[in-house]
């Protein structure tokens, strides 16, 4: 078995793994109950699936310029996917489109409550200062 | 080997269909954005799969461009996401659209009718005022004529 055949088979297996991951994302996006769990399913192929498929592509092409181009794709995907996911998750939380009964931990909500309480205390303290002067 | 590529293409196709179904069902803009994100990933995977199969390199710039701008759509949707009423989160059925249309048309017709009545009332009032003016002028003229005669 020559090196090129082995590379081709490895590429095929990687492609299969990437396609399976994408299918899992499709099923998850359709079946999961709320926005955050759907995002959780949907972001798997956006990073790992893309890396698998592009490594397969690199194994098939076997040239340095192509590898550089694919690296650019992966780097940009790594930079942009978290931005989109962060924005969507934040907007979902703010506009109350998530199911809070499914959350295991809600640190943002706890922080918001604490911040509100701190603001109230500060306001009360300022009023006391006004009275004394 | 070809079989594996065909299986991969089939898996990607099914994933794309599922993502589009989620984008159609919603039930809110953000859910649709997530579904369309997954669909974009399926498109990227499909292009890479085809490039790996035929060993072509001219489609790689498409991947670069998609990975650079793919996040803009969902970012923009998330930026302008607002609290939507429950009824606006899904696409209406044809019957609902027809019912809403009928309701709106009835309202518009009622408003039109109201306006026509108002115009008619105004015209009647104006005519009455004009008649009263004419009668006044007539009375003044006859009074003046009587005074002339007395003199």
Describe the overall structure.
The complex is a heterodimer of chains A (133) and B (151). Chain A is mainly α and 133 residues long. Chain A folds into two domains: 3-99; 103-133. Chain A is 85% helix and 0% strand. Chain A contains four helices and no strands. Chain A is elongated, with a radius of gyration of 24 Å. The mean pLDDT of chain A is 85. Chain B has 151 residues and is mostly helical. Chain B has helices spanning 2-25, 29-54, 60-79, 94-150. In chain B, helix 1 (2-25) runs antiparallel to helix 2 and helix 2 runs antiparallel to helix 3 (60-79). Chain B is rod-shaped. The mean pLDDT of chain B is 87. Chains A and B meet through helix 1, helix 2 and helix 3 of A and helix 1, helix 2 and helix 3 of B.
Number of helical runs of chain A?
Answer: 4
- Kindly state the mean pLDDT of chain A as a whole number? 85
The pLDDT mean of chain B sits at 87
Which oligomeric form is depicted?
A: heterodimer
Largest inter-chain interface?
A-B, 52 and 51 residues
Helix percentage of chain A = over 70%
The beta-strand count of chain B equals 0
Radius of gyration of chain A: 24 Å
* Topology order of chain B in helix (H) and strand (E) letters: HHHH
Tell me the number of structural domains of chain A. Answer: 2
| N-to-C CA distance of chain A | 90 Å
Shape of chain A: elongated
Number of E-type strands of chain A:
0
Fraction in beta strands of chain B: under 5%
- 3D shape of chain B: rod-shaped
Structural class of chain B: mainly alpha
Biggest sheet character of chain A? none
Topology readout:
The complex is a heterodimer of chains A (133) and B (151).
Chain A: H1 3-31, H2 35-61, H3 64-94, H4 107-132
Helix pairs in contact in A: 1-2, 2-3
Chain B: H1 2-25, H2 29-54, H3 60-79, H4 94-150
């Amino acid at each position: 078995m020559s090196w090129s055949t082995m590379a081709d088979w490895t590429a095929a297996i990687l492609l299969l793994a990437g396609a399976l991951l994408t299918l899992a994302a499709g099923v998850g996006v359709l079946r999961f109950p709320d926005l955050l769990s759907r995002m959780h399913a949907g972001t798997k192929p956006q990073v790992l699936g893309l890396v698998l498929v592009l490594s397969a592509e690199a194994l098939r092409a076997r040239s340095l310029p192509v590898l550089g181009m694919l690296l650019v794709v992966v780097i940009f995907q790594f930079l942009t996917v978290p931005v989109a996911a962060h924005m969507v998750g934040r907007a979902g939380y703010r506009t109350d489109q998530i199911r809070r009964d499914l959350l295991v931990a809600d640190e943002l909500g706890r922080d918001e409550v604490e911040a509100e309480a701190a603001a109230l205390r500060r306001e009360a303290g300022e009023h006391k200062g006004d009275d004394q002067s | 080997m070809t079989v594996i590529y065909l299986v991969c293409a089939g898996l990607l196709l099914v994933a794309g269909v599922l993502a589009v179904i989620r984008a159609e069902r919603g039930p809110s803009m953000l859910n649709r954005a997530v579904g369309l994100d997954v669909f974009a990933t399926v498109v990227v995977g499909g292009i890479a799969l085809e490039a790996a199969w035929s060993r072509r390199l001219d489609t790689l710039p498409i991947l670069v461009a998609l990975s650079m701008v793919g996040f803009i759509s969902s970012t923009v949707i998330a930026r302008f996401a607002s609290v939507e009423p429950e009824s606006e989160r899904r696409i209406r059925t044809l019957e609902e659209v027809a019912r809403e249309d009928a309701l709106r048309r009835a309202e518009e017709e009622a408003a039109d009718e109201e306006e026509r009545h108002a115009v008619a009332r105004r015209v009647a009032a104006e005519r009455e005022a004009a008649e009263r003016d004419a009668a006044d002028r007539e009375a003044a003229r006859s009074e003046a004529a009587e005074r002339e005669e007395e003199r």
